[in-house]
Fold this protein.
Amino acid sequence: MSTEPDLVLPACDFVIFGGTGDLARRKLLPGLYQREREGQLPATTRIIGASRQGLDDADYRAIVAEAVEQHVAADDLDPAVVRRLLDRVHHLTLDADRPEDWHTLHALLKDRSDPEHAIRVYYLAVAPQLFDPICTRLDELGVVTPTCRLVMEKPLGHDLESSRRINDAVGRVFEEQQIYRIDHYLGKESVQNLLVTRFANTFLEPLWNSRWVDHVQITVSETLGVADRAGYYDRSGALRDMVQNHLLQLLCLVAMEPPTYVGPDTVRDEKLKVLQALKPMQREDVDRDTVRGRYGRGHVEGEAVTSYADDLGRDSTTETFVAVRAEVQNWRWAGVPFYLRTGKRLGRRHSTIEVVFKEPPHAMFPGSQGTTVPNRLTICLQPDEGMQLHLTAKVPGPGGIRLRPVSLDLSYATTFRERCPEPYERLLMDVIRGNPTLFMRRDEVEAAWQWVEPILRRWSDRDEVPTTYAAGSTGPVEAAILLARDGRAWQESVA
Ligand code: BG6
C-alpha cells in the first residue's frame, strides 16, 4: 500500500446519485476501492450512494461488495480493504419528488463537524433529465458551498441547444470551476502521456506541424456491439457517443499549442482554440468527408455475432461506425487532414493515434532495393499502451543498399512496473483534489457540439440508412475510399 503523504486526499462526502446503477457498479465503486487500497482516502471520507431503491446500509454494502468483486481484478482483491471501503459506505433512499428523502440527505451531510467547509462531491450518475431537479434541490437545501463539486457524465445533450440547457441548469447552482464534466478518455494514462510526450521532450516539436506532418489518423475501434445499451445508443449513434467527445478530445491533445504550464485553464484554453479552428462542415463537406455505417452479422474474434438490428430488435438509421476527414485551420496545421474513425463490432479492439510524416524531400538511395515507408509515430492508447516510431533502416549486408521499415517500440507494460490505474481512479481523485484539468469545460463541450451539429443536420436531412459493414471487418469500404481519394490509407496496425 502506498503511504506517500501527498497522495492522501482531504476527507470528503462522496455522494453518488445513481448509486446502484451500472456506472457506479462498473466504474465508480471499483475505482474508489482501488484508491482505498492505495491508502488515499482518509478515515473520515464517506461514500453515500443515493438511489430510489429502499435499501439500508447493509443492503447497499452487499451491492458494493459484489460490484467490487465483479469488477476488480482478482489479484487486487484484499478482503481487509473491501471491509475498510464498506465501513465508509452508506445508502440513502432518494426519490427526487419526496421532500422527506431530501431532508434525510440534508441531515446526513450536516452531520459533519465543519459542514460549511467540508468537501462534498455530488456525482450525477443518472439520466440527464435529472440533473436540473437534483441541482435545484441541493441548492434549496443549502448544501452547495464553495467547496462542493458537481460531476456530470455524458451524454451532455444531444445537440448544442440541449447541451446549453444542461449547462445553464447546473450553472444556476454551481460555478463553472465546481463543475467536472467527465470524458473518461482524458483519464487514460496513455492520453495523459500524449501531453508529456509532446511537451516534456524537444525532438517532436520542430516536426509537429504542416511542414513535416502529412496527416493524422485517430482510430477507436471496438469489438463489442451495443449489447444492453441499445436503447441509449440508438438515440445517440457513434458521432454523438464517441466523436463529439472522446475523438475530438484526442484531436485537441494532438493539435494544441503548448500551454505555458499544465494547469486547468491553460490546457483547456488551448484545446478550445483547436475546436474553434476546426473547419466548419458545409453540406457538401458532410457528403464528401463523412462516412456512416452500421454493423451487420459476422464473426468477431472467431465468434458469430448478431447485427445491430438484431441487437436493437428492429431496424434503425443510427450509425455504429463513423469516419470523418477534419481540418484544423490554423498556422500549424493548415492543409493537414485529421482522419477520425470509430466503430463497434470491428475486427480488433484498438485505439491508436497515427502521426504520419511526409516522405523525405529527396530520394538519396536511387539504386537501393527494398521498401521504405514514411516515418510514422504510432501512439497506442489501448489495449497495449505504448508508442512506436517507424523508420527506414538499412538491412545489414556487404553490397548495395537494401532498405527496410523497422520500428522503435516503447511498451508501457515492460518499461514501467507500476500498475496502470483505470481512468476513473485518476479522475475521481482529481475531483476530490479540486483539479479540473482533465475535465471538459463548458465552452469546450459547446464548441465540439457546434462542429458536430452540421454533420448531424445533414445526415438527418438525407435520412439514409447507413452502409452495412460485416461485423469483424474494418468498417464500410467507403471509409477506405475516404482516404484513398487523398492517396492515403488507414494504418491497420497489427496487434
Ligand atoms: C463510452 C461510450 O463513452 O466509451 C461507449 O459510450 C464506448 O459506447 C466506450 O464503448 C469506449 O470506452 P473505452 O475506454 O472502452 O475505449
